[in-house]
Amino acid sequence: xxxxxxxxxxxxxxxxxxxxxxxxxxxxxxxxxxxxxxxxxxxxxxxxx
Length: 49
Known about the structure:
Layout: H1 2-14, E1 18-25, E2 28-34, E3 41-44
Antiparallel strand pairs: 1-2, 2-3
């Protein structure tokens, strides 16, 4: 987790792609991917990955 935080902080500073992970239920993760240019965000659920 600490490594992911550092990677996202570096992405903010350097303009890279960001990845966020959340739980929308105890066993259901949700992933958000922000493209480097911030033009789009992809939302992924486990059954779509």
